[in-house]
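Folds abound. A case:
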Amino acid sequence: MSGRLIFKDRYGRQNRDVIMPKILVLGEQPQFRTLLSESLWLDGHLVESVGDAAMLWEHLGNTQPDLVLLDAHSDGFGAMRLYQDLKQQFPDLAVIVYQCRNYGDVDRIKGAVADALVKHRLSGSGLNVPG
């Protein structure tokens, strides 16, 4: 579920209500996970970041994200197996399996995230977008 921020003017009146998509990022490499998370946050998303599959499942129950990003090259979990488990338990959840080997990959991933969130909103259900 998307997060809501309510902006108020200097008199305390509600000025505008902004919906920020929630994204959960799973990746074992902290430098790329952090870079990706911060970049998505700067684009206006609410971002949670976890380093292993157990933490992902814990956060899914609490966070209810609009989109999950899974690192394709993690050694500690099988990304494709985890993808299948996620889609089985949460068929409407948008999931992207991504590959981030250098800093240049972040823009490509952000483009896939933007496309997935637009399509997810338009369809009203989950969308699988190749990473």
Remarks:
- Helices lie at 30-42, 53-63, 79-89, 105-123.
- The first strand starts at residue 3 and ends at 8.
- Residues 20-130 form a domain with the Rossmann fold fold (CATH 3.40.50.2300).
- Residues 125-131 have pLDDT under 50 and may be disordered.
